[in-house]
Each structure stands twice: as C-alpha cells, then as structure tokens.
Amino acid sequence: MEVPEQKLSFPQSFRNWLGNIITVFKTTINGLLITLRYWRKTYDPDRRTFTEQYEYPEKPVPVAPRYRGFHRFDLTTCIACDACAKACPVDCIYIGKEKVTVGKGFKITGYAIDYSKCMFCALCVEPCPVDCIFMGASHDLSCYSRDGTIVDYSRLPLDVSWGRATLNPAAVAQSKVIVNTVHTGPNEGQQ
Predict the structure, then answer these.
(1) Measured between alpha carbons, how far is 110 from 85 in angstroms, rounded to an integer?
(2) How far is CA 13 from the centre of its chain?
(3) Which residues lie across from 96 on neighbouring strands?
(4) Is residue 8 classed as helix, strand or coil in its secondary structure?
(5) Total-model pTM
(6) Sheet strands side by side (includes 150-152)
(7) The CATH number of the domain where 129 resides is what?
(8) What is the pLDDT of residues 93-118, one digit of tens each?
(9) 97 with 32, same domain?
(10) In whole angstroms, what is the distance from residue 176 CA to residue 147 CA?
C-alpha cells in the first residue's frame, strides 16, 4: 500500500518557505553579531597582550593544579624496572640500563622521553614502584628542532630533571653536548 503524498496548498507551502528564509537570516545575523562583538574587543584600549598580562617568560604562566607538563624524573631513586616504559601506550620512553657487576640491580645509562610522541596521559606515573617519575607543571613545551623533543633525563643537570629549574630548549640542547651521563642512579657507587 502506497501512502499518498500530501500536497500543501499554495499559501501553506509559501509560509513554510518564507519561515525558512526568515530563520536563515536570523541565524546569520546572530552569528555576524557575535563575530562583530569579538572583533570590537580586539581594539579595546584596556586589552593587554599575553606577554603583558602574564609577563612571560620572566614569570611562569599560572597553570591548573593538575596540569600535565614535561615530566619530572628523579634519577637517584629509579631502579630501572621498565614499568613506566611498559605502561606507555605510545612507546615514547626509552630506558638504557646495564647489570651491576657487584650486587644486584641495574645501573641506568639513559632515560629518554620522546616528546614528539608523548601525549601527556600520565599513565607512566602510576606503575612506578618508587615514585621517581611524575608530571611537571612547565607550560612551555616548545623546542627549536625535532631533535630537541627527545629529552634524556640522565644527561640533564639534577636541578633541571627534578623540576627545581625550568626544562627549556636551551637546557635540552646543552645536555646533548655532554658525552657522559650526569648521574647514573642509586647503584652508581656499586661497581
């Protein structure tokens, strides 16, 4: 059974068409007014630029308490268990280690994170049994080259890797010049 098409009379179809045209004009004008309001704000004399408002980079930008920035890593307590590297969903954590000749355990030779892959999910923080890795609060996540996105925390000075100083592109570039690691972990003296 076919359902017959209902035909609207000419005045009803004309009213529907006219109602649709009016709705289109109302929504278009509403959108243009919103755009115009924000455009006018750009010429407000009391409006300041981002650097005037936050005094960046001299003073750090305020971030939320649970902000996830560059990692902070305590190399002196790391036991090289690979739990953080196994928990990472994008495999951006690379741990270099070698067996200690005297005693048991491992000596860390490198702990690098590739920030071009990292999605700052903090899944590497939870499985760490000694709490040596945690998320930092640095806002500036930029670098000068793709090589700068790979940060080897074992080559950084301890005050930078622990989060007492800023992890900036200059510190990362300087750490790539150093040939040996700065600190090799808790088993350093057991050779």
Answers:
(1) 13
(2) 55
(3) 110
(4) coil
(5) 0.64
(6) 93-99, 106-114, 150-152
(7) 3.30.70.3270
(8) 999 888 888 888 888 888 899 988 99
(9) no
(10) 9
